[in-house]
Amino acid sequence: MKMRLFIVVILSALTPLEAHADVTDSVSNIYDFLSRGFEDAWPDDFEAEGWEVDFGVGTAVVPEYAGADRYKMAVLPLVRVSYDGFLSLRNTKLRVNLLRYENFSAGAVARYSFGRNESGDRVLEGLGNIGDTVEIGGFVRYSHKYTTVKLELREAVGAGQGRTTYLSVNQGLHRSERLKLGLLASAIFGSGQNMQSYFGVTDAQSATSVVGLRPYNASGGLYQTDLFLGGEYSLTNHWLLGALVGYSRLLNDAADSPIVADFGDPNMLSAGIGLFYRF
Fold first, then answer.
1. What's the pLDDT tens digit per position in 150-164?
2. How many domains does the chain have?
């Protein structure tokens, strides 16, 4: 067990470093989904007693930035650690269940969030970098049979990124001895500060923009919806293969931002695959 924990700590430390190069929040969302598998769709399958440790590697095709019309491929180290249904680490997100009663659970969450690098795309040049930060907050979750509804709120500690709220519904579609299929639908809300950071353009940024972005003030509210279909297949007792395809749509002030409306696309596709080894 000491060796397993050592491996997990090393991989967790390397995760932000390996993924940082031009990684956007779209990759962070893929990170979450690939690493989590179908824990919310099939909660009873992830309530193992004691420690459960998986690690692996994944690759995903995602937009260059949230709202881009160009795509890139990212290689992602993956980590999944659980302890007795109380604590879970999914790559850069740590969750602690503080309250559990029948189908209801609630607790605290902390997540290392990747920022945005202006060198990642020509449209972003002149806007400056959005720094990495740590988000802290809480969640509530209700599960019934094969359906789970979860509300999660996270506040960025630094980098002026504000607050983000996630509402998601997971639906288990199929489960056999080796194969699980699930569907995830989510809606994402951003505070005014969060929206301005990622979709706003100040007068100063407009003046330095390489592509001539017009000034734009982004207000808070619902800004993105997602729909993912994925599966996880047990190759052996230790090796697991996960895959997904997804569609995301930017809405309201995010879709109207010149970063998206003038030079990008509010419709975003994504796909990913991950290979895990379970101890």
1. 999 999 987 678 999
2. 1
